[in-house]
Design goal:
This protein is of the alpha/beta class. It is 24% helix and 26% strand. The chain folds into two domains: 52 residues; 96 residues, Sandwich (Immunoglobulin-like), CATH 2.60.40.420. It has a four-stranded mixed beta sheet, with no helix packed on it. A three-stranded mixed beta sheet has the order 1-3-5, with no helix packed on it. The chain starts with a helix and ends with a strand.
């Protein structure tokens, strides 16, 4: 039979564990809310206002150089001047790629990344509204993309 002192001691351990688990759960929930708020904030900084334009990322996914069913991800994007008019291409593939404009709006400059080795990136800020088309010169048959730029 358990003595009263042993019973009280074991019960207080149980309560301490319960409080500790509860406190940890609160910390995890608060951290998750903070992370979600940061991720969903357009400027990437929760609770602050910024007029700094953000960028849009486009990936060359793993395997795209050898798989004709893959393409840039996403292959079509919409940019708003002054809001998110910089595009960053990131090469996640194990082979080289490049980004070359094939058509640009009147008054806009063409762009060419040169060779992008694996795990490298290229960015361009577009300031002329219109539709831009681009491709990977190494894989032009299937690696093609479109950028629609609108006035902010």
């Amino acid at each position: 039979m358990q003595s009263l002192a042993t019973f009280v001691h074991s019960e207080s351990k149980g309560i301490s564990r319960t409080l500790l688990v509860g406190a940890l759960a609160v910390v995890v929930v608060v951290a998750a809310i903070a992370a979600f708020t940061m991720a969903s904030s357009p400027s990437g900084t929760a609770g602050t206002s910024s007029n700094t334009p953000t960028s849009v990322q486009v990936f060359a996914p793993a395997g795209v150089g050898s798989n004709m069913t893959l393409n840039f991800v996403p292959s079509t994007i919409r940019l708003v001047i002054g809001v998110n008019n910089t595009v960053v291409w990131v090469n996640h593939d194990s082979t080289q790629h490049d980004i070359q404009s094939t058509s640009v709006p009147s008054g806009a400059s063409s762009f060419d990344s040169g060779t992008l080795n694996p795990a490298t990136s290229f960015s361009v800020t577009l300031t002329v509204p219109g539709t831009y088309h681009y491709h990977c010169e190494f894989h032009p048959a299937w690696m093609q993309g479109t950028i629609v730029v609108v006035q902010g």
